[in-house]
Amino acid sequence: MGSTTVGILALQGAFYEHVQLLKKAAASLSADNAGSSSQWEFIEVRTPQELERCDALVLPGGESTTISLVAARSNLLEPLRDFVKVHRKPTWGTCAGLILLAESANRTKKGGQELIGGLDVRVNRNHFGRQTESFEAPLDLPFLGEEQPPFPAVFIRAPIVEKILPHQEGEQVAEAQRDETVIAPSRQAEDETARQAMADSVEVLATLPGRAAKLASQGTHIDADKETGDIIAVRQGNVFGTSFHPELTDDARIHSWWLRQVEESVRRRHAKQRA
Ligand code: GLN
């Protein structure tokens, strides 16, 4: 396989940290797999021309309102929507990035936030409230493989996925009726390959157990009956979102996992194009 270019949206927030961990992950992948000929290039994305070069994209944590505002001013908002929803290239959003990838976000004033969309979910921004601005919790992440040690997940004014939305053609109109909720505009996939890259259903990849959330909240009331816990990692086809910030640790396991997903997605696209 030739070289794969991964962009990191670098308008605001923790983009530099993602670049560092992606490089570490790429180095460990090639060490693990001496036969792999994957070449990675990681570039910071601030312009539509830079985005155009990318095969996959990371949206970092930071402040989603600021990121969307700067994206609109840099003429990047529409190209970002095209990237995720028309070309359907692999994309990963962490924290603020997850908010931007949601089709619906609550606790948002109309006009205060533009969404890219791509994940059929509603996020609740700042779910843990003011009293628990940030905390760290050891997480079991089954998608990383069996018998992996817990992942040190850092949550900072984190959103959670509070609802998985039914997949539908067009925008999430029912969501638009809700108070303080914004939705993403709809876009058509460019072709059948792109349509298939985004599965119809959202998979829940990880939850924060009620018990951990309660401990972490240090006294803030969180419904203890929530056996299922809060949804903090989801995937819909090749679009992936996490509530927490793997880029703020030195643990590159999620970055390595995601690069393997990107490899797979790019390989499938090339195979289809050749067929
Ligand atoms: N709650 C923040 C927002 O609305 C996200 C925080 C983060 O990325 N750490 O953008």
UniProtKB/TrEMBL annotation:
It holds the Pfam family SNO. It catalyses: L-glutamine + H2O = L-glutamate + NH4(+). GO terms for molecular function: glutaminase activity; lyase activity; transferase activity. The keyword Transferase applies. Its EC number is 3.5.1.2. Keywords: Glutamine amidotransferase, Hydrolase, Lyase, Transferase. GO terms for cellular component: cytosol; glutaminase complex. CDD domains: GATase1_PB. GO terms for biological process: pyridoxal phosphate biosynthetic process; pyridoxine metabolic process. InterPro entries: Class_I_gatase-like (IPR029062), PdxT/SNO (IPR002161), PdxT/SNO_CS (IPR021196). The keyword Hydrolase applies. Belongs to the glutaminase PdxT/SNO family. NCBIfam families: PLP_synth_Pdx2. This is glutaminase. It comes from Aspergillus ibericus CBS 121593. The lineage of its organism: Eukaryota, Fungi, Dikarya, Ascomycota, Pezizomycotina.
